Amino acid sequence: MIFIIVLFGLISIVLSVLLFRKFQSLKYPSIICFTYTLISLLLIFMLGKVEKVNLVDLINDREPKIAKNNEQSTGPNGTIVKIKEQVLIDAPIIKQFPELPRGCEVTSLAMLLQYKEISVDKMELATKVEKSTVPFKKENGYFYWGDPNDGFIGDMYSYENRGYGVYHKPIRKLAEQYLPKKIVDLTGSEFSELQIYLSLGNPVWVITNTTFRKLPETAFEKWNTPNGNVKITYKEHSVLITGYDNQTIYFNDPIDGVKNKGVKKDDFLEAWKQMGSQAITYLP
């Protein structure tokens, strides 16, 4: 269709020149030719709209080189992105230990931001991430504590004190301090949405669990928070997804410092969905 639009434009220009020569003896030859040219341009614009052609992307040739069974999706800013069959991104690996025993979320965010060439480390992020001030208490068999959607729960720096972690909302707010108007919260999306950004070369921060497979219900408990009940597991974990293929999800794991660790795709996705499909990345 793009070829047809370009061809139609060239034909219009040629016909405009010919019409000018043919009618130059008339009183208003330029008006006639200008009117024809304007109509031609309007037709080209309408054709482009019908096909949703993104002229900026055509000029910049931003279409990925590898396609997955001709599958394509609409990416950021309306860009047509062909989802790659396999991706493996060379993002920096950072260990959370020994400084941040419960700091997997900010450590994985540090990897994401450093890959984007933002000069920041895990300790700075640990200081800046929002913290919950709701105290823990157990009363009549019920647990009362803060909401990880509001801020980090408990002690990030030591296992000697009670602690948990933090979810995507405070991490998104923190990331936006370093990449304003560039952070994309993909929480609740299908994995195919994450594949769009991974195909563009952007790693993705996610929440999963330390086993990287679906947990039994016995691994969870409920807290009463100011926002209502929250279902949590102490196996909660955060990693940076760096790639995938047909069988495997690859990620940087801040617990053991393994770069591009591979886990069976189906297992990883079940664990990720069980934790609410939380995911954050940035615009290209």
TrEMBL record:
Membrane-traversing stretches: 26-47
Domain Peptidase C39-like: 90-254
Superkingdom classification of source: Bacteria
InterPro entries: Peptidase_C39-like, Peptidase_C39_single_dom, UCP032442
CDD domains: Peptidase_C39A
Entry keyword set: Membrane, Transmembrane, Transmembrane helix
Name of the protein described by the UniProt record: Peptidase C39-like domain-containing protein
Organism: Robertmurraya kyonggiensis
Upper classification of the organism: Bacteria, Bacillati, Bacillota, Bacilli, Bacillales
